[in-house]
TrEMBL record:
Domain ABC transporter: 9-247
Source superkingdom: Bacteria
UniProt GO molecular function: ATP binding; ATP hydrolysis activity
Coiled-coil intervals: none
Origin species: Marinobacter profundi
Alphabetical UniProt keywords: ATP-binding, Nucleotide-binding, Transport
InterPro entries assigned: AAA+_ATPase, ABC_transporter-like_ATP-bd, ABC_transporter-like_CS, Metal_Ion_Import_ABC, P-loop_NTPase
Identification of the protein by name: Phosphonate ABC transporter ATP-binding protein
Short name of one Pfam family: ABC_tran
SMART domains according to UniProt: AAA
Family statement: Belongs to the ABC transporter superfamily.
PROSITE patterns: ABC_TRANSPORTER_1, ABC_TRANSPORTER_2
Length: 247
């Protein structure tokens, strides 16, 4: 159940440097993402958008700072169970069925040899099949993942997040490789899951029209610095016109 008073993500004094150098690629003093919100992150290439998401998911180890997930501090370099990631390149396992790819999301709930051997029980299968149904891909459950279109693969990747029972989905340019129709279909799916299940969504995007259409708020990054965090409907009179700056 959502707790609007508690942020889903809270970042304090986060800094990331390239290993072995003094070059800072990300430096954010404070960023709070509300639980159940849909937040877009915009900025030019090299602004630090992917680094930010990968830091939140434990794929990048920050040089300093603290990240809190649902009020709890996250040890540096660890991946919180309640956070899942959607990638631009889908990050699915080739030569495996759609269902097998979704079952991977259940590994975060396994321990020891069960996790190492990738053993799944009837409950795991039921949860994964339900996740496929939620994204409209149930009839493809036993198809080879290689037979799917890009838009279908991204739906499978989102189903994997649902099978993980993630309360936060981080999406790193999830529609960059899709045509405009499939891009909107994937964004609509993320929005539907956000509204129906209260899943917090944070998504990196280059398309400002998609940010305006689907996101509640927008974070602007430039050269690793956060320039603003504001509602997408804010007026330029009182806040930066992010659509002009990052178009």
């Amino acid at each position: 159940m959502m707790n609007p008073a508690q942020p889903a993500l809270d970042v304090q004094n986060l800094q990331v440097r390239y290993p072995g150098t003094k070059q800072v690629v990300l430096d954010i003093a404070q960023l709070t993402i509300k639980e159940g919100s849909f937040t877009g992150i915009v900025g030019p290439s090299g602004a630090g958008k992917s680094t930010l998401l990968r830091s939140l998911n434990g794929l990048v180890r920050p040089t300093r700072g603290q990240i809190r997930i649902n009020g709890h501090p996250v040890p540096p370099g660890t991946t919180p169970q309640q956070v899942s990631m959607v990638f631009q390149g889908f990050n699915l396992m080739p030569r495996m069925s759609v269902l097998s790819n979704v079952l991977v999301g259940r590994l975060s709930h396994k321990r020891g040899l069960t996790k190492l051997m990738g053993r799944f029980d009837a409950r795991d299968r039921d949860i994964s099949l339900r996740a496929l149904s939620q994204v409209g891909m149930l009839r493809y459950a036993y198809r080879d993942i290689r037979d799917l279109s890009g838009g279908q693969k991204q739906r499978v990747a989102i189903a994997r997040c649902l099978a993980q029972a993630a309360s936060i989905i981080l999406a790193d340019e999830p529609v960059a490789s899709l045509d405009p129709l499939n891009a909107r279909n994937v964004m609509s799916l993320l929005r539907d899951l956000n509204l129906e299940y209260g899943i917090t969504v944070v998504v990196n995007l280059h398309q400002t029209d998609l940010v305006e259409s689907y996101c509640d708020s927008v974070v602007g990054l430039s050269a690793g610095q956060m320039k603003f965090h504001q509602p997408t409907g804010a007026t330029p009179k009182s806040t930066p016109d992010w659509k002009q700056i990052y178009a």
